[in-house]
């Protein structure tokens, strides 16, 4: 992920609040291992190592160093420090159990995302997304119509295909029809980022943060839909404001036609069947969703074998003896975003080590124990300020490690509060272009038209949508705030 100097400065400003608590560690007995050595030289050294590593991550745009590399190295160093500290107090076995728990958490996330990425790559290879782009560009819509069409499609596709992939596809449409109008491209990209993030917030499959909450078993699959209307409001308010600045003129029509390859529709059906399988594993069999996703990968492997045999017969009919057939499932696995997957490993292990040292309890007590009391809030809304802050922080740092922090702290919150933090972490990143993977990717795809400052110009409108979505959730789902997690 690429970052700017603004984000680096903001990160340094907030580091003392955020990073101490990011972890997923657990002791041999099941409770988190807390060495309570946050003020020791070794503890501070571990925190410093992580800060330096994440600064390298944030400066990827300038160094061109893949973000996974520094955090993987930092993870190894931090756990060496944890191991030494644990040995001094006779807790080596508990430290081993903690890192094993971290590895298990990562394995589930890794397998789930690997299957999802493989399906997306397969649909891309079958021209599913290209066909959608070509269809939209040849319909002769006005700029304002395309603004709404791409935004609405982004909102409803992202819950299934994830917000990053959705944003890239819709941006390709905006670029294809409006490349000569930079103002439209900028507004269209902002609209897509907001829509994709909002659409991903109410679905366990739409964003990494919602996926983590669901896989943790904190909320059931259907409970996420309680924030559908707040997500809609989060998108509609800034979109309605920005549409007034979009020209009504017609762009130049395109005659490009793209046909989906054989098996494209069946691949989409298999992906939906895989999602159903993952949900069924979690809800009915009480098994990890990742196991259901891996079964879904098996569906695609067998269908890939069928496509390969079909292509083989066709090549024989035309006398083509080439042995490299079009569809190869392992090529789709190979094209997964490995830098991102390895980055998650580094983050989980790094923050797990920092939590084991003892920083987590400090942050948890401050955010979820003191802020609400200081504001004089009732018990059911004690966590509300912290959860709203999570969304603001997600726009500056990144929603994935922020959500890791909350999940690791596991504060005693109601269903309503867990839905609130899921909503804010998912849509808060829309307030800045650097606040989400979708925004960062589109800055590269629409370079020169969609920039940090073009997005910043409309941050106030996006913030209005952010505030309105929170108010809507507090009012619409008020009964859920008195429902404790069982």
From TrEMBL:
It is found in: Membrane. It is a multi-pass membrane protein. Residues 1-25 form the signal peptide. Its main location: membrane. Residues 57-426 form the Citrate transporter-like domain. InterPro entries: Cit_transptr-like_dom (IPR004680), NhaD-like (IPR045016). Keywords: Antiport, Ion transport, Membrane, Signal, Sodium, Sodium transport, Transmembrane, Transmembrane helix, Transport. The chain crosses the membrane at residues 41-59, 71-91, 141-157, 184-205, 225-246, 267-284, 290-307, 341-363, 383-406, 418-438, 458-476. It comes from the Bacteria. Belongs to the NhaD Na(+)/H(+) (TC 2.A.62) antiporter family. PANTHER family: SODIUM/PROTON ANTIPORTER 1-RELATED, SODIUM_PROTON ANTIPORTER 1-RELATED. NCBIfam families: NhaD_1. This is Sodium:proton antiporter.
